[in-house]
Design goal:
The protein has about 300 residues and is of the alpha+beta class. The protein contains eight helices and ten strands. The chain has a domain of about 160 residues: ph1033 like domains (ph1033 like fold). It is globular, with a radius of gyration of 26 Å.
């Protein structure tokens, strides 16, 4: 009898075929898929203890807890970030102020936590080449009474997180000490956030552009500081303005603020220890201090 398609010639069960050439993701940066899955509660996922499981039935998430999360988020943003409450409504007619002298770029962040810092402090920094590209675009548009708009997305997220406008060219002499990858992003420029909402890539699947390397691909494949043509950018702005989102990065602001507070507290403690250790070393190595100690004795 011929062996089945799931058996070897000796009748043993074959291992499942996982697909030839398929690579397993091994992201080791803070913005990789593993970091998102392991460290953040995704928008549609909640901790196990908040699941409701009827007897002998599949567990499902408690909708009451989802409402609690949304209510807590709204209260937190209202108390600490009042300027962000109606940001999307205030800029709903952004498309009317767009002119042909404006330029548009995709921004790809390694971490959603960095986007949180950008919204909180109204700053951003890209790679060295990226900063140069954006600064040149800013100077050109400023001379022609236009603006540079940035479409933010996080690696592995599958969505845009919002739109910001450049407010200054990049100052290479400045740096920001709260990015998730210290020392990797020199330079700093000011931005103003206009939209903060999660819009999935599938909403832009019909927008095709020519990439930096000459390949023609959907806009969702764009890399950091990829320029978007004017007509395609207008369509994207209109879609983002009209999209009825249910999630935003604001839902994670309390979590990221707590992480930042803990980080700054630990840094302050380490600095105090270093200062104390340096003072102790000076006291033990300074001969004048040793002589004074002998006189006291």
């Amino acid at each position: 009898m011929e062996p089945s398609s799931n058996q070897n010639q000796d009748g043993a069960q074959k291992k499942p075929n996982r697909g030839r050439g398929q690579k397993k993701y091994r992201g080791n940066n803070r913005g990789g898929k593993n970091y998102y899955n392991n460290n953040y509660q995704n928008y549609n996922r909640y901790p196990q203890q908040y699941m409701y499981q009827p007897h002998n039935q599949t567990p499902y998430y408690n909708p009451y807890f989802q409402q609690q999360i949304l209510y807590r988020t709204e209260m937190y943003i209202c108390s600490k970030y009042r300027n962000l409450i109606d940001i999307n409504q205030r800029n709903a007619k952004l498309i009317e102020s767009i002119n042909s002298n404006c330029k548009f770029f995709v921004i790809k962040s390694f971490s959603e936590e960095d986007v949180h810092k950008s919204i909180k402090y109204n700053v951003w920094s890209s790679s060295k080449d990226g900063n140069l590209t954006l600064s040149n675009a800013f100077r050109i548009t400023e001379e022609n009474k236009g603006n540079v708009y940035l479409f933010f997305s996080c690696n592995g997220s599958g969505r845009y997180a919002g739109i910001a406008r450049m407010k200054s060219p990049c100052d290479e002499t400045k740096s920001f000490g709260l990015w998730t990858q210290d020392g990797k992003w020199p330079g700093l420029f000011d931005v103003e956030w206009l939209f903060i909402k999660d819009v999935p890539f599938k909403e832009f699947k019909n927008i095709i552009i020519t990439m930096k390397d000459g390949e023609v691909k959907p806009i969702s494949n764009a890399r950091d500081t990829q320029e978007i043509p004017f007509e395609q950018a207008k369509i994207m702005i209109q879609k983002i303005a009209e999209y009825q989102n249910t999630n935003t990065i604001l839902e994670h602001f309390e979590f990221y603020d707590m992480r930042q507070d803990n980080y700054e507290r630990n840094m302050q403690m380490n600095n105090n220890k270093d200062i104390k250790g340096n003072n102790e070393n000076k006291n033990t190595t300074n001969p004048n201090n040793q002589n004074n100690n002998k006189k006291d004795n």
